[in-house]
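The records we work with from here on pair a chain with its fold. Taken together, the C-alpha cells spell out the fold as the letters spell out the chain. To see the layout at work, look at the sequence and C-alpha cells printed below.
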Amino acid sequence: MRLTRDEFESGGLSAKLGNLLHTHRLEPEEVDLVMDLGAVEDLIAPGVAALTRAFMADVPHHHRWRTFTVSACAFPKSMGGVQRNSHELCNREEWIAWRDNIHARRQGFTRLPTFSDCGIQHPAGVEAFDPRIMQVSAAVRYTLQEAWLLIKGESTRFTRPGAQFPSLAMRLVYGHLRHYFAGPKHCAGCAGIKAAADGSEGLGSAEIWRRSEPFTTLRW
C-alpha cells in the first residue's frame, strides 16, 4: 500500500487508512506499507526529516505492518542545471535525512522505517520526452556517499553517444574526477563505467547507461 505526500497533506490519513483496511478486510500484518514523500529536491535534509516524522506520526500501527518503508527522491528533475561539458555535485538530501535524523534517532521510534529512493531518476520520469524534437545530452549520474556526481557532455545531435559516453567515463575513471570513482569491483555499474573508459564495445548509448547507473546507488 502506497501512501502519497498529497494524501498525507490532505489530512485524516489515519482514518482513511483504517477505512481502507476495513473495506478490503485486511490486517496491517498483511500489508507492505510505503510512505512516499515523492520529489523533495526543493528541501534540505532537515526539512525532509521533519516531513518524514510528521508523515510517520499520522500512520498508525507502526509495529504491525509486514514491511514499513519511507521513500523520497531528491534527484533533480533534469540535467539542465549542469553546464555543457562540465560536472556538478547534488546532495542526496533524502538519504542524509534518513541517515542523520531518522536512523540516528531510531530509539525514539516505535519502528525504524526502511529507506528507499528513486535511484538516479526523478519520479516525474521521462514519459513526455520526444527525442525527435527535444535535445538530449550525454551524461553520467554517479552516486557518492552524500551526493550525486553529475557529469554532462553535449547534445547527441552534435556528437554521437558512442563517442561521448566513453569520454565521460574516462573523466571519472582516469581523469580529473577519478578521486570520486569507487573502483570497478564496487558494483556492476562501476565495472561498466571502467569497461567503457577502457574502450569496450556496446557501452555507448543512453539506454545502456541508464540501465547500469542505478547499481552505483548501492553504496552504504
